[in-house]
Task: structure prediction
Amino acid sequence: MKALCWHGKGDVRVDTVPDPKIREPRDAIVKVTSTAICGSDLHLLDGFMPTMESGDVLGHEFMGEVVELGKSVTNLKIGDRVVIPFTIACGECFFCKKGLTSCCDRSNPNHAMAEKMMGHSPSGLFGYSHMLGGFAGGQAQYARVPFADFGAFKVPEGLTDEQVLFLTDIFPTGYMGAENAGIEPGDTVAVWGCGPVAQFAIQSAWMLGAGRVIAIDTVPERLEMARTQGRAETIDFMKQSVYDTLQEMTKGRGPDRCIDAVGAEAHSHGSFDAVLDAAKVKMFLGTDRPHALRQAIYCCRKGGTVSVPGVYLGFVDKVPMGAFVNKGLTLKSGQTHVHRYLKPLTEKIQKGDIDPSFVITHKAPLVEAPSLYKTFRDKQDGCIKVVLKPN
Ligand SMILES: NC(=O)c1ccc[n+]([C@@H]2O[C@H](COP(=O)([O-])OP(=O)(O)OC[C@H]3O[C@@H](n4cnc5c(N)ncnc54)[C@H](O)[C@@H]3O)[C@@H](O)[C@H]2O)c1
Ligand SMILES: [Zn+2]
Ligand SMILES: [Zn+2]
Result:
């Protein structure tokens, strides 16, 4: 089959690789009908994520048609149309039973590698390094889905791929980002970033009762989408001081809830901390560029919450812990527990509360993936979200 493979920093290619096979009784093989490129994939493209190996198949946002089933999967049948959560989870362990499926204790065969770096291992992820399981991803014609009886979610009749594909990750991720912010009715919510995850965090903030949403980015079409689709007020961090503007907009109090939907690869308008981060990453003295996280902590009102759906990969420094403690802030984060949001968010799509396809700007066959990774990374051609059709 054809699959998009990682070959090193800045180097992804469509290769011919062996078709996936059923290996465990709870596996399914899915023929991929739609798959998307995510901001998390950029951390792989840009070489931020350790333990990638040349030839690894990428992609963690995918859906398709069941073509083969392991003998223990009795709740699915051949031909079912399914959406696959990017976090792989067994459904039976201590964490899965609590609904914390991105913390599943049984889905990462390489947990020892992750334990060394993080103390404990998160769940396995599709197409996201050997430390997180070494699972082949879904930017491919076919994919093997472990624990399919728990993970694969049957798509109800009448919904298109474009409407449900983002249930795999970014819609639940934006929603959990807003939920983790602990929004109270009428709260002012500031969202760092206007990428796809941020767009869903903005939509979800309204669903959860925000009174006002302020979104921060610098890419014109992303700011525009936040204003038109997201009904947000916006700040361009290259043209305005984020702190001063937020202070002004909130009459000196600061936003009640701050969501960092930027993560490890923040840019900035030449502020000292950001220049230092970039230099440290280049010299292998640092792993992440946490400028947005620092700013969110600094700007958040006293007693407020900072929610971090943005992904960080290693060790971050110069985090204003003094501000965090003395202002009495709460911090929440996590890879998304996708499974628990599948049903409720599907119902929102069915009711017409939201049509997630609004973020899609590019649709293309898999062969165009290498160039579209770069278009998406460099924010060229108005690119906000890419959907690939591998078959
Ligand atoms: N927690 C999870 O489970 C989960 C799931 C999916 C994605 N993510 C993470 O969410 C983050 C966003 O993903 P995405 O797909 O939207 O990616 P993206 O790269 O398209 O979006 C990031 C946006 O942040 C903006 N930005 C950069 N520096 C900024 C700054 N200093 N202030 C404000 N905005 C800034 C960029 O211009 C860009 O529009 C990534 O870190 C990704 O890894 C997390
Ligand atoms: Zn993703
Ligand atoms: Zn589990």
